[in-house]
Amino acid sequence: MEVGAAAASEPQAGPVTLASLDYDFGDPLEPPRDADATGHRPYKIALLLRAGTEATVTIPAAYRDRAKLTYSPGSDHSVRFVACPTSPDGDSDFAGGIAIRGPVCLPVDITSAGRTWRLQLEFGADVC
């Protein structure tokens, strides 16, 4: 997947598209990845944000022991993104991703312009 050009199959909510760069949602988690000191295994998921918008991405409290965001150091469970006012391809791209402790059907809340959407991201086969 080319960053900046979201595929129709990528999870999308409001002005946000999550473009998985090294994993297809719903596939088995094989082979296992190296874990960090807290037991989380990282997955690269670029966040594409429509030019001129802002959004906050949050992992709900009930899932914070199983997953964290890796878009900025120390962000863990909630990150605010601000897109550039304009962009040649219409999106601002943010590097990072999500780190998980094991298979999980992970809800992720996207808040922008006073609205909140919930995405369900399937890490592992048949967990959602």
From TrEMBL:
Residues 18-38 are annotated as: Disordered. This is Uncharacterized protein. It comes from Asanoa hainanensis.
